[in-house]
Design a protein that fits this description.
The chain is built from 18 helices and 15 strands. The strands form four sheets. Strands 1, 2, 3, 4, 7 and 8 form a six-stranded mixed sheet that branches. Strands 9-12-13-14 form a four-stranded antiparallel sheet, with no helix packed on it. It has a three-stranded mixed sheet with strand order 10-11-15, with no helix packed on it. A hairpin with a 2-residue loop joins strand 13 and strand 14. The mean pLDDT is 86.
Length: 505
């Protein structure tokens, strides 16, 4: 592009005043109503119509610290890019050594040195993908307001490399069970999976990095890859351009979805909002390569090339823990109750994205909604109910039984009996009956006891026995050896005669 004629004319006027008429810089600036820096720039450039660039950058205060800064740059050049110090870090360290100059001097010096030594190269190879070939996965950290409190959430991004359609889901953690859940939900959202998945070297997938593309993936990650028949591909360390689509999406989504700050009541509401955004953005936005189509239209073309789903992956992480004497098991800084029969034994905690299941000897002994935070305790009264047979007094002050939401009739019977002397044991026996007869039968028996004003243990157990239909006994065939040759016959005439005599009397 040719230089602006007006700029060239002004620059020529400055040079004539300075070179021909001998005016100084201050006078030229005053006469032409321009800044002295502009006059200096034109005079120093010595060329017309060119953008001024200072050839010799003066850094008078850097002076003796130049050698120290060069040693630091050479030393850091041998390290990985993410391990190298920034210009601000150099500025802080040199300031501690006595440097009193500006940060800009060090920043320009570092930038020039790195460009000269090939550290600031920004050339990339364009990538191209076939339909159904690959997806790219990454995490991002976002801030949202949940129930009036600002929270940090981890958002899983999974993006189809051909159609650019993406899936988002927020979690409170960035752990392996969250990774499993994100993939399950994403593949259900896309109605299929691709043949290959592109990842960075995250700890939830990669245990160790070898030369080139070879990685030692952990067993859990390999399990979900094998389940969905996906070939995992790990990026080269510090080479984010290899999954540049999802890297760019992280910044775009922050502007499209999370700004201004999202305000929701629950995490489920946030994920419902994100799911709607995944649909709407795909329908509204143009595909970056196929300009005549939207992302959703390209996805419809790609969908037929996706690998069909057979079944969802049972994604959990399992760890062994000991159950305490109070029937509690600790996990992720919180405590959960288990069946009292397994107190002081070792059990396995299977952690999912939103729930935990406790297993002992292949039997499920507890299931709870997963808590996030710390120092919280979840108590299930049913886990402690069998202990009431030996310790009925615990019903009055036992923590698991406080605020227990029982059916109204059972709760009224319990409160009535507890107000009487010795009512603890009677209440405990009625509650224990729920394991034998079921909560519905006990509820009906309590309702009848209340209506008949007979709230006591014996009446309620009598009603439960009558409400419970016992199965008829099995018919047994009599062996021939036990059969009588002359079977007795029923004769009621003698009984009728006795009744007649009594009537006459």
């Amino acid at each position: 592009m040719s230089p602006n004629p007006l700029i060239m004319e002004s620059e020529a006027k400055i040079r004539r005043l300075y070179e021909v008429k001998g005016h100084d810089i201050k006078q030229i600036a005053r006469d032409l109503n321009i800044s002295k820096n502009t006059v200096k720039r034109v005079i120093r450039s010595g060329k017309a119509g060119k953008k001024y660039k200072r050839e010799n950058q003066h850094r008078p205060k850097l002076g003796d610290f130049t050698e120290t800064l060069l040693k630091c740059l050479v030393s850091d050049h041998k390290l990985r890019r993410k391990d190298r110090r920034s210009a601000m870090r150099y500025y802080t360290e040199l300031s501690d050594l006595g440097y009193s100059g500006a940060y800009d001097s060090i920043q320009r010096f570092v930038k020039d040195w790195r460009q000269t030594n090939g550290e600031c190269s920004s050339a990339f190879i364009p990538l191209s993908f076939e339909p159904g070939e690959a997806y790219q996965f990454d995490w991002s950290t976002e801030y949202v307001q949940i129930a009036g409190i600002t929270c940090k959430v981890k958002v899983a991004h999974l993006k189809l490399s051909y159609s650019r359609k993406f899936f988002l889901k927020a979690y409170m953690r960035e752990t392996q069970e969250m990774l499993f859940d994100a993939h399950d939900n994403a593949f259900s959202f896309f109605e299929g999976s691709t043949r290959r998945g592109i990842y960075d070297n995250m700890k939830t997938a990669v245990d160790s990095i070898f030369i080139g593309k070879k990685r030692n993936y952990n067993d859990g990650f390999l399990s979900i890859m094998d389940h969905y028949l996906i070939e995992p591909t790990a990026c080269t360390p510090a080479a984010g351009w290899e999954k540049g689509q999802v890297e760019k999406q992280v910044f775009n989504i922050r502007d499209w979805v999370f700004l201004p700050k999202v305000k929701v009541k629950t995490l489920d509401e946030l994920n419902h909002y994100l799911l709607e955004k995944c649909h709407s953005i795909a329908k509204e936005r143009q595909h970056p390569e196929f300009k005549e189509k939207t992302i959703e239209e390209c996805y419809q073309e790609e969908r037929v090339h996706l690998v069909p789903l057979t079944a969802t992956f049972d994604g959990y992480v399992e760890k062994s823990h000991k159950v305490s004497s109070t029937c509690l098991i600790s996990f992720d800084r919180n405590k959960y109750s288990v069946d009292c029969a397994y107190a002081n034994q070792v059990a396995s905690v299977r952690s999912y994205a939103s729930k935990i299941i406790v297993v002992a000897k292949d039997d499920e002994i507890a299931s709870h909604e997963r808590l996030f935070g710390r120092d919280k305790t979840v108590l299930c009264p049913w886990h402690y109910l069998p202990l009431l047979e030996r310790k009925p007094g615990a019903l009055r002050n036992g923590a698991p039984f406080k605020n227990w939401e029982l059916p109204a009739a059972i709760a009224k019977v319990k409160n009535t009996l507890m107000a009487k002397e010795g009512g603890d044991r009677e209440s405990a026996e009625i509650l224990l009956a729920m394991n034998e007869f079921g909560i519905e039968v006990v509820t009906v028996a309590c309702e009848l006891a209340i209506s008949d004003s007979a709230i006591n243990r014996d009446y309620i157990f009598n009603v439960m026995s009558r409400l419970t239909e016992s199965e008829p006994p099995e018919e047994i065939e009599t062996p021939d050896s036990l059969k009588l040759r002359d079977e007795p016959k029923a004769n009621c005439s003698k009984y009728d005669a006795l009744l007649q005599e009594l009537t006459i009397c």
